[in-house]
Amino acid sequence: MRHSILAVLVLAGATGLAGCEKLPFGKSSAQETVDRAFQGVNAVDGTGLNDVMLQSADPDEAVRYFQRSAGQEPDRIEFQRGLATSLVRADRTTEAIAAWDKVVAHPDAAPDDGVALADALIRAGEWERAQATLNAVPPTHETFRRYRLEAMIADVNEDWSKADSFYETAVGLTTTPANVLNNWGFSKLTRGEHREAERLFTDAIRQDSSLFTAKNNLMLARSAQGNYALPPIPMTQEERAELLHTLGLAAIKRGDVALGKGLLEDALETHPQHFEAAARALDALGQVASAR
C-alpha cells in the first residue's frame, strides 16, 4: 500500500508540474503544486493515505494534511474526522472539540463520532458535557471506548457501582485490557479498597508487563496495607529503583520512617545512574532529624 501511495504522489505531482508549465505569468505557486498533488491522491487513494496520516504521521503534519483536504472538500466527513482525530493526537484539545462538534453535526455522523467527542471533552475536563454527549449516543452502540469513558465519568461522580459495571464491561470488550484494568485499580485505590486494587494492578501487569504506571500503582496499593516488599513482577533495574523509591515514600507517609529510609537507600544503590529524587528525599530526612 505504501508503494502505491508513493506512486500516486509522484504521478499527481508530475501532473501538477506539467500543468504549471502552461500557466502564464507564474500563476502557479509551489503551494498550488502541493495542493494539486494531494487532490490527485485524495481522488485515487485517499482512504489509504488518510490511514497513514492518522497512524504514523507526525500529529501536526497530519493536522495540516487534513486541514488542507477538508478545505478542498468540506463535505467529506472522513477529512473532518481525520482533522479532529489529528488535533487530539497533537494535544490541541480545544480545537479538537470544535472539530468533533462539526463532525457530530454532519448528516453522515455515526454513533462513534459522539463517543470521540466525549473523549475530547473529558481530556478538557468538561465532564458534565461529556456525560450529556454519551447519553445522546444510542444505548445499542456498545463499544470498549464508550464503556471506558462511561466508567471514568462514573468515577468522577463517585457512582462506584456504575463505575465497576462499566469497567467490567469494557474489559470484556477488548483483547488489550491492561490500561483499563489499571484505571479500574486506581478507582479502587481512591475508594480505599486496597486489596482489590492490588489484584487489578497485578492483572494489568500480567496483560502488559511494560506498563510502569500499573507497577507504581501496585506499590501504592501494597504499601497502603503495610506491605513494603517488592512483588515478583517483571522489572528492569531502573524500574526496581523507582518502585523502591515509591515504597520508601509511602512508608514514610504512613509513619514507618526508619523502614522508609532503608527503602530509599536501597533505591539509591539500585539505580544504574544517580537517582536524584531518592537522594533529595534522603537529604530531607536528614535535615528533619538534625532539626530535632
Quick structural summary:
Helix content is 76%, strand content 0%. By secondary structure, it is an all-alpha fold. Helix 1 packs antiparallel against helix 2 (30-55), helix 6 (111-123) packs parallel to helix 8 (144-156) and helix 10 packs antiparallel against helix 11.
Give the SSE map.
Elements (H helix, E strand, L loop, with lengths): L1 H20 L8 H26 L3 H14 L4 H13 L3 H13 L5 H13 L3 H9 L8 H13 L3 H13 L5 H14 L2 H14 L4 H12 L13 H17 L3 H14 L5 H16 L1
Helix pairs in contact: 1-2, 2-3, 2-4, 3-4, 4-5, 5-6, 6-7, 6-8, 7-8, 8-9, 8-10, 9-10, 10-11, 10-12, 11-12, 12-13, 13-14, 14-15
Q: How would you sum up this structure, described in words?
A:
- With 292 residues, this protein is an all-alpha fold.
- It is built from 15 helices and no strands.
- The radius of gyration is 26 Å and the shape is elongated.
